[in-house]
Amino acid sequence: MTKLTAVMVECALKLSPTALRHRLIYIVLGAAFMASASAQVRIGSDRDNTAQQQKKPYVVLVGLDGFRSDYADRYHATHLQAIGDQGVHTALTPVFPSLTFPNFYSMATGLYPEHHGIVEMKFYDPQKKRTFRYTDRNDASDGSWFGGVPIWVLAQRQGMRTASFFWVGSEAEIAGARPSYYIPYDGKIPNEARVAQVIDWLKLPPSKRPHLITVYFSDADDAGHHFGPDSAELRDAVERLDRLAGTLTARLKELNLPVNVVIVSDHGMIQLKRTPIALDAYLAPHDMPDPAKNVSPIDLYANSPEQADRWYNALHNKDSRFEAYRRADVPAHLHYSTGSRIGDIVLIRRDPVHLFDRLPSPLELARYFETHVGDHGFDPALIPEMKGIFYAQGPNIRAETRIAPPESIEIYPLVARILGLKIEGHVDASGKIAKTIYRQ
Q1: What is the SS3 assignment for 224?
Q2: Active site residue: 18, 50, 93, 100, which one?
Q3: N or C terminus of the chain: which is more exposed, having fewer CB within 10 Å?
Q4: Gap between the Cα atoms of 382 and 308, Å rounded
Q5: What is each CA distance from 20 to 8, 25, 290, in whole angstroms?
Q6: pTM here?
């Protein structure tokens, strides 16, 4: 019996018989999932930490999908607030588009999506003549889709072990490497098992112990999409994640290691308006986007330059809720105008509305909005609810420091600096917050 299971049993014995049965079922299933999580750990590299790297501090990088910048204060997330009060806390400005795969991979590489190539959750690559889909395990584990040098690859190259309990790109061999330990994504693995695995990794002997660990939780995003940012379900998700943050920091403290905790989110969330945009209101029936490659509500891929021109003329300046840009003319602040994976036409929505190729029937639309209450992907300069969170605390983080909200690309140089890694090659991040909040 693990220590965590023993604690769960002790608590269960104080419950009523009915509650006890339910809790024991939870314990058995939780223990099974924990064993399953351990069984799923894969070895990306068996190279030991060098003697020099064994002296370095540690970073646990926590990703809270869809955790909006105001959630902690709004829903009284006391553990997260304490982390921020003792160290650093501010909003985190997502790169465009404010979606999970582009942003978590920008944090991992210090690059904008136009440079690392993960420009959307689903997108078309004209050179490969293939469509990337985040739900396709083959795509998610195919390193040829992913550009840049992820922070775990940088560490591996410099003789430092790493581990990932989920992160965008961590399952793929990128630039010739994977994390030392990684687990293929499985959203059914309980949050408690993820925390337990982080602690177990940090209990390994110094030569085997990862100095960078990433771990990911989807609760806030799931609740925000299905029930909205103002729902009781979202509040419950924030409370669960906050308790988890308290458990994690308490258990890390018991290890007596120089561990820095960095907690981030990829984007925020906003309630969708029920007045969607439909492209068939503007485009001729014979000129609609090819569904084989047009899988994104942001990027439109034309079959010819002439079609791109027709689309632009039909969509540009036609509706106050969105604007259509040619790729080269996308506003500079979005850093979304180079790279063939970006559409020939880019649609920037000014309002929180969904975009369909063709407007569904009233019944289909009503059913859609039953499970699509909140959303993201918008320009954070137009819709500030897209901003996420940045909390950091540890021996290498300045105490009680306040900074302006950075972009998500700035997480990369911060983690590299804490770990004492030398950045190789080009990154888009300035490294400004690393200089501001790092404490030697």
Answers
A1: helix
A2: 100
A3: C
A4: 25
A5: 11, 8, 55
A6: 0.91
Contacts of residue 15, defined as CB under 8 A and 6 or more positions apart, other chains included, come to 23
Q: Are 59 and 198 in contact (CB under 8 A)?
A: no
Structure tokens at 390: 């940045």
- Residue 79: per-residue pLDDT: 98
Q: How far apart are CA 143 and CA 169, in angstroms?
A: 8
Three-state DSSP class for 140? helix
Rounded Cα distance between 134 and 140, Å, is 6
Q: Is the pLDDT of residue 436 over 60?
A: yes
- The 10s digit of each residue's pLDDT in 59-94 is 999 999 999 999 999 999 999 999 999 999 999 999
Q: Residues with Cβ < 8 Å from 398, sequence gap 6 or more?
A: 87, 88, 436, 437, 438, 439
The answer to whether 93 is a known catalytic residue is no
Q: Which amino acid, residue 138?
A: N
- What is the Cα–Cα distance from 207 to 49, expressed in whole angstroms? 5
Cis upstream peptide for 97 (omega within 30°) = yes
End-to-end CA, the chain: 39
Closest CA to 347 of 298, 306, 382, 307: 298
